[in-house]
Write a structure and sequence with these properties.
60 residues; mainly alpha; 0% strand
Amino acid sequence: MKMQEIRKIARDWDVDTKVGRSKAAVIRDIQVREGFSPCYGTKDICDEKRCLWREDCLNG
């Protein structure tokens, strides 16, 4: 997912997208707001099928 799309989702969740914040940091903050563990980019295997970021995370 591109940063432009991530910023739009972040705005919906009231997550900070200031210049200099990494994609992973923004996504992890969104994950917390969504009620998930902030695990983006930290695992090789993911069992969470409902996570919006799953495909991007495991392919990145």
